[in-house]
Amino acid sequence: MCNAGGMPESPEVQALVEDLGARLAGREISDVDVVEFRVTKTRDRPPSSLVGTRVRGASRHGKHVAIAVSDAQHLVVSLGRHGWARYGGVGSDAPATDVPAGDIPPTLVAFTLDDGEVLEFTDAGDWVSLGCWVVDDPTEVPAIAKLGPDPANPGFVRADFDRAVTGRRKQVKAVLQEQESLAGIGNAYSDEILHTAKVSPVAHAAALTLDELDRLFDSTVGIITETIDARRGVPIDGLKAAKVAAMRVHGRTDEACPVCGDTIRDFSFASTTAQYCPTCQTGGAILPLRSS
């Protein structure tokens, strides 16, 4: 994903798996090309072991993609910070001609299908964050086994949210992004959720009032589910742009808050920066920003 949008998060990954499932189901994998060996996480079952299998469908687990193939196997792909997918080969969607060649992310692993079309997984980061596992069950991947409840799941209820958030002596933004607490949310959507809920990103979860918790629950479920609906059907090569365009505060530094008109500001969070509105979220307080 582009810098403004941050790493892939559940709404875009959900749209991706729905596209993959619809487009690839029933087709056979005829060849696999691992361009970057470090993406292979199951050495005894490399991606090449899937040659000759047929795609059965695709599903999302947090920010992970799981492609089900014949013989009850799954190709699990962790998109990491900047990973994504694109189609190549016969009938592919060619890269936009106005995109400089240096800005087109490299393919790290490619799966050729029986009609010549190619599913490529890319990574645009300075280090390899894309990862591939071949497993019998997606929960064999440690990060998936540890996932917390997913706010996009129809069965997600307030009790799930309370177990993840209430009483935590940790900044609420960190809790929202902690995959073991709530699955699928990253830097961008946590900014959007907190802004909509009018909650400071640096407030400790344990210090939130009942009213703030109510607003945060409604915002978390509402934004994730509504955004998944909004992304559904968008071509996978347009999902990054759709994400960036829909942001109200994330990536909008120095722009006017769409709610109150105050200036949206950056603050330092973990190893990156995030955005917030002082008037809507922090009572006018300016959060610290590390000097570059």
From TrEMBL:
Per the similarity annotation, which family is this?
A: Belongs to the FPG family.
Q: Which SUPFAM superfamilies match?
A: Glucocorticoid receptor-like (DNA-binding domain), N-terminal domain of MutM-like DNA repair proteins, S13-like H2TH domain
Organism domain of life: Bacteria
Q: Which InterPro entries match?
A: FPG_cat, FPG_N, H2TH_FPG, Ribosomal_uS13-like_H2TH, Znf_DNA_glyclase/AP_lyase, Znf_FPG/IleRS
Entry protein name: Fpg/Nei family DNA glycosylase
Keywords, A to Z, come to: DNA damage, DNA repair, DNA-binding, Glycosidase, Hydrolase, Lyase, Metal-binding, Multifunctional enzyme, Zinc, Zinc-finger
Upper lineage: Bacteria, Bacillati, Actinomycetota, Actinomycetes, Micrococcales
**What does it catalyze?**
Hydrolysis of DNA containing ring-opened 7-methylguanine residues, releasing 2,6-diamino-4-hydroxy-5-(N-methyl)formamidopyrimidine
Does the keyword field hold Aminoacyl-tRNA synthetase? Answer: no
The record's Gene3D superfamilies line, in alphabetical order, gives: 1.10.8.50, MutM-like, N-terminal (3.20.190.10)
Q: Can you give the residue ranges of the FPG-type domain?
A: 248-282
Cofactor(s) the protein needs: Zn(2+)
Limits of the Formamidopyrimidine-DNA glycosylase catalytic domain: 8-128
To which species is this protein native? Agromyces neolithicus
The record's Pfam families line, in alphabetical order, gives:
Fapy_DNA_glyco (PF01149), H2TH (PF06831), zf-FPG_IleRS (PF06827)
